[in-house]
């Protein structure tokens, strides 16, 4: 880099109540550079971004933007200097229109008192044109897909004349094609001089477009790397400070009578004619792009999404899984995709969450819930699953993602289900906890449980599954037997099967469009 | 055809709630008109305008609070405190001037509203709890400091009596005459002002933004305190205005009146489509909700039914209509595999 950097931070340090969150960080971004900021949860990434964006103030160190040293900085000044942060939750207003969401920031900063609809639409259209996306200006943002919401957030940042765009985990909720569109927009903006910093802890598409990668660990910078110099292994090593290799799972059970058999299962618009079976000790990988119907299928197996036709059999007996409690009666458990909104009671304690599936086992003689029994049960779960926080009275929301997930898994395993469906069990979880969760899953399978492991990540499937089903557009597109999985080059085959399905064509799945129409007809955001 | 008209006038489609309300209203009017020929007349409409004016003003204020994500139950207390204090002040100073009395009530109302906003903001209290408390404090303080003497017609300031009796035009018939109250254009003006503030000013858009997601709102630099001050001072000011309209219309000043009726107003706004979760609500919906409420309240006599039926009908409409609409939304969510509570 010969040009002087657009952003340069020197020796940034910050402590919160005696805990050093950042130790003398140096960080530079050049004009038109795409940089990745990688690190585990708690490595200091978010503190760093908060300081750069003026939300927090550093104890030591300097920040220079376009050659000008910023002495004090609040969010407004950071924004005026060209720093824009797009948080993972996007910070949009669901009830306001696309145009309003894009333009509100600009108009606020211009000090407008009145809403000039023409100006507002002009600002919005100008930014949309700039990123080359066409969105309905008057539609409420809540009716858009996540990918389009992200576009709105980007446009809002651009409308503020952003020079450096920070994006926190921008691709987690996107499908493969949407990720490609997002990245092509970013590359296009890069050519016009915009610098982007991606914050991520996953080696994925984002890394492919990055010019360089900065890794944080425990509040300090490990180093700056060229994207091409890193592979998964070295990235994990830098992020965790140790070699993380996942043990591959090999099934050793000899009982081949299937626990669960699914035959010809169909639900219109979701999935079609799905067959597979799970034997004791199987960890069956279920994968495919978002929208392939895998989550819909999982919900059907747990009684939350009634199939139209086909059969589900448990130990050779056909069952009608009409509701979650029926599924539980048959020994089926589900770890849902979104642990905070579907898998846990976030504001409740670890004890309450861990015992939630087993209330019948923590009652005393006269049928009242017993706190000591609840605590004892929770204590065993916390110990077994190696939850770091041993205090079971802590609200779950205060735990890290990895520990939350351990509690979510733990609440099922004491019921000893015969089939455990895990939907994306390691999303947003750091590498250390990941390997602990994998080991736990392996132990469950070794004890004879059948596991259905749904995941986006080929690495994860390879490490954990002894058989794999790949779905595309609602149908089973490819299968891998135990021999296939054990063969060399399986991972490449799997990646190929996921990204290049044999049955081409568009995914026809009930997506946001159903609600689109609904909320648009509400039309709450225009006038009166 | 109707869709074209509404789309043009409103610049948007009607919400399902608004359509339902219009349909229920139309059915009700047809039924009552067929039972009682006297019902379908200008006189009924004028009566309705007179009796419903106060409720409509309170409802418009309540709408803004709901959109901002709050729930205010102190507005009836503020209406009484603002109106009563202003009347006492005018009597004490001997200034029998309507503008003075209205200005007094509006200013006192806005001040009390600002107290609500400050308490909510700095103590981070739930708006319902804060206003539940301040409603009692405001009203109690007024009774202790100013007393609770009622004023009959002879003691009501003349300017208020004139105001309450003033019609912008009257229609004479053989043995009766009736007119459209001056309250009506005032209500229209308040409606237009509220619309303008909500949809055409940045502070109004901030109210929607704060109601949608306060965290995101503060991230883009919206001043939450300023927005809350605007919301609660505006509803306070409207309440003060309503207090004077209420006393003038009755020509009787009773400081124990009105308090306790706030839930009816909130119900009318909610039936119009405003959500307690914030960020959503429309002026047309609110207007329709209040009109339906007032229709039941004032015209059930034409069917020979007592006013108890008003509560019954209105409550039934509220429960069934909201239940139906939320059910439909939940089904749509379920189809899209969204399993959330609302």
TrEMBL record, chain A:
Keyword list, A-Z: ATP-binding, Cell membrane, Membrane, Nucleotide-binding, Repeat, Sugar transport, Translocase, Transport
Lineage, highest ranks first: Bacteria, Bacillati, Actinomycetota, Actinomycetes, Micrococcales
Domain (ABC transporter): residue spans on this chain: 7-243, 252-498
Pfam families linked to this entry: ABC_tran (PF00005)
Single GO term (MF): ATP binding
Top-level division of the source organism's lineage: Bacteria
SMART domains in the record: AAA (SM00382)
Protein name as annotated: Monosaccharide ABC transporter ATP-binding protein (CUT2 family)
Coiled-coil stretches noted in the UniProt entry, renumbered to this chain: none
Species of the source: Salinibacterium amurskyense
Database matches in PROSITE patterns: ABC_TRANSPORTER_1, ABC_TRANSPORTER_2
UniProtKB/TrEMBL annotation, chain B:
InterPro entries associated with the record: ABC_transp_permease (IPR001851)
Assigned keywords, A-Z: Cell inner membrane, Cell membrane, Membrane, Sugar transport, Transmembrane, Transmembrane helix, Transport
Keyword check for Transmembrane: yes
One Gene Ontology cellular component: plasma membrane
Topology versus the membrane: Multi-pass membrane protein
Transmembrane segments: 20-37, 57-86, 98-122, 128-147, 177-198, 229-247, 253-271, 278-296, 308-327
GO molecular function: transmembrane transporter activity
Domain of life: Bacteria
Main location: membrane
Entry's localization field: Cell membrane
Protein name (record): Simple sugar transport system permease protein
